[in-house]
Write a structure and sequence with these properties.
With 294 residues, the protein is an alpha+beta fold. It has 9 helices and 15 strands. Helix 6 crosses helix 8 and helix 7 crosses helix 8. The longest helix has 14 residues.
Length: 294
């Protein structure tokens, strides 16, 4: 099978311990006839994937982090071109959701060449597709403030440190949220939105999250005592618990929503802050052909 390999040479794992050349050889050894395109700037991955769709290339392999993968998704959504993933980033949320291990690129190459194809839902926030996660409020504030240098070198530690720093500097905002025609209003720290079993850093928002049910998992983080919020985050970050049943959180499923806040808050998609509220969110069922492990 012919395939286009879109690789981010600045991804965290490139050259240590994985090189792009080794991925090319591994994919070819697994049976894919790959052409390599290297990204140099934001937007390149989307442009390369769009060209592949126009040329009728049946499969695109994205080698990089969640940001690179998300760029490719923008061009492959609602097309017949399949997406395979080689996880090389810091979070690798989408890759883990389909059973890939960023410590074993040989296995990821084998899946990219010979895995099964599933059609999964995509969320859309502010016109931007996402396969795994989005959010508004405190989590978007963290991603906006997080230094990329520290993120790449410290990973989860950098994220946790920035979370507590942002929490000390922020106050809850007044949110008005429409969820499939119902309205929830009040002071909140933020809204977390998830399409896969994992939100980020192996955090599960709720049990039994599915990426093919036409719904998104939504967690509303209400204003409670400061220590209640810290308790929720600690339980999800370190104890592996979900947000279900915690007094600070309401967990719902929805296919369409509108988020407003006063004053406005930032929103993010796959860890990239992209705008401020108000913003609309909806699901596009079975809109991405994703290559997964058998």
């Amino acid at each position: 099978m012919k395939a286009l390999l879109i690789a981010n040479p600045a991804a965290r794992l490139v050259e240590s311990p994985v090189s792009i050349d080794s991925i090319v050889q591994c994919l070819r050894g697994s049976g894919l006839d790959v052409e390599l395109r290297l990204t140099e700037k934001a937007g390149d991955a989307s442009a390369f994937a769009r060209e592949a769709v126009a040329a009728g290339v049946p499969r695109v392999v994205a080698a990089g982090g969640d940001g690179t993968i998300n760029e490719v998704v923008q061009s492959l959504a609602l097309t017949a071109t399949e997406l395979a993933i080689i996880p090389l980033g810091t979070g690798n949320v989408i890759a883990r959701a389909i059973g890939l291990d960023d410590r074993d690129h040989v296995a990821s190459c084998a899946v990219a060449a010979r895995g099964n194809v599933r059609q999964i839902d995509l969320g859309v926030m502010g016109g931007r597709y996402f396969a795994a996660l989005a959010g508004a409020g405190i989590d978007a504030q963290v991603t906006q403030n997080l230094d990329p240098w520290w993120k790449q070198r410290l990973g989860k530690i950098a994220f946790v440190s920035e979370f507590f720093r942002s929490l000390m500097l922020q106050e809850p905002h007044h949110f008005r949220i429409e969820l499939d025609g119902q309205t929830v209003e009040g002071p909140m720290w933020g809204v977390l939105i998830c399409n896969t079993t994992e939100y980020t850093w192996r955090i599960q928002l709720a049990p039994d999250v599915r990426d093919d049910d036409g719904l998104l998992e939504v967690v509303l983080i209400h204003r409670q005592g400061f220590l209640d919020f810290v308790d929720l985050m600690a339980r999800m970050f370190f104890a592996g618990e979900t947000a279900v049943g915690h007094p600070t959180a309401t967990v719902v499923r929805a296919g369409r929503m509108r988020l407003e806040a006063q004053p406005p808050v930032p929103w993010q998609v796959e860890g990239d802050p992209l705008g401020e509220t108000p913003v609309d969110v909806h699901v596009v069922p079975r809109s991405l052909r994703l290559v997964v492990a058998k």
